[in-house]
Amino acid sequence: MKEWEKLVRKVTPYVPGEQPNERDIVKLNTNENPYPPAPGVQRVLREMKADELRLYPDPTAAGLVECIAQYYQVKSSQVFTGVGSDDVLAMAFMTFFNGKDPVLFPEITYSFYDVWADVFRIPYQQIPLDEKFQIVPSDYFGENRKNGGIIFPNPNAPTGVELPQEAIESILLHNPDVVVIVDEAYVDFGAESALPFIDKYENLLIVQTFSKSRSMAGMRIGYAIGSEKLIRYLNDVKYSVNSYTMNRTALALGIEAIKDDAYFKKNLKNLMETREWVKDELKGLGFLFEDSKANFIFASHKSVPAKEIFEELKKEHIYVRYFPKPRIDNYLRISIGTRGEMGKLLNAMKKFLK
Ligand code: PMP
Q1: Is any ligand 1 atom within 6 A of the Cβ of residue 86?
Q2: What is the pTM of this model?
C-alpha cells in the first residue's frame, strides 16, 4: 500500500438495489411507488424555468419545512429536510451518535445503518430479532445495554414488521440519556407513527421520506421531525458540511406533493389493497411471511429456495430483492407494484412453483 493510501478513509459501501436499464420489466426490487407523483408535482415541474437555476436554493428550505410542519401540526423549528432520508439519517448519525458506548440497532434491518456507523467511526451493537422477526424492546435497555443511541425502522426493513407504539414508548422511557431515532420510511402504508411522542420525549427523532408513499424517490426528499433542540443540532452539522443540500426543483415539487392530500390517501389505499390481495395469493402459492405494514412483503417459500425463485423471476424480467445474508438468505423482498404488475409476478410464480 502506498503511503498516501494509508491515509484514506476505507469503507465497505452500502449496495443499493439494481436499477436495470431494460424496458418492459416488472420492477419490484427497490420499494418504489408504482403510481406517479401528485398532478400538482407534474404541473409545477412543467412550469419550472431553467433560468432560475442560476440562483442558489433557499438554504433553510423554508417553504417546504413550513409545509411539512403544517401538515404534521408541529412548529417549523421542529422540521429538518435533506436529500432523501438517507441524507437526513447520515446527518443524524454524525450529529447524535458521538459517544463511546455502542449505538444499538436490530441485526436484521436497513443495511445502511452499519455502513454509516463504520464511515463515521461510531461503535455499534446489532440486536437479534425474535423468531417472528419482532424487535424485543427490553433488549434495548437494562444492565448490559448501556448505549450511545438507538435507531430502528418502523415498520422494520426488510421484514415489514411493525413495532407497536407501546413498545416504542418503553424503549423511549428507558433511554432518556441518548437520542432514539425511528426511521419511518414506510410508516404511511398502515403502521402507527411515533409522532404523538414528539412533545413528550425531547430525545426522539422521527425520519420520513417522499421516496415511497409520495412516489418521489427520484427527487430525493427526506425529513426529520423532533424537538427544537434536536433540529437545531442537526442544522448546525448540516451547515458545517453543505448549506445547500436540497435543490430548487426538489423544494418546489415537495410542497406540491404535500398539498394534495386526497391524491396521497387514494394512492396509499390502492397500494394497501393490492398488498392485502398479494398476501392471500402468496399464501396460496405456499409462501410464508410475517404480516407486513410496508409497501413490500418479505417472504420465504415452504419448499423452493428463495435464490432459485429470484433467478427464475429475473429470466422473466421480473425483479425482486434477494439478500444473501445469514438468517434471511431464504427470503425474497417483494415490493408492491400495480395490480397488473403483481398479477404478472403471481402468474410467473405459478408457472414454476407447480
Ligand atoms: N430507511 C429505510 C428503512 C429504507 O428502506 C430506505 C430506502 N432505501 C431509506 C431509509 C432511504 O430512503 P430515501 O433516501 O430514498 O428517503
Answers
A1: yes
A2: 0.97
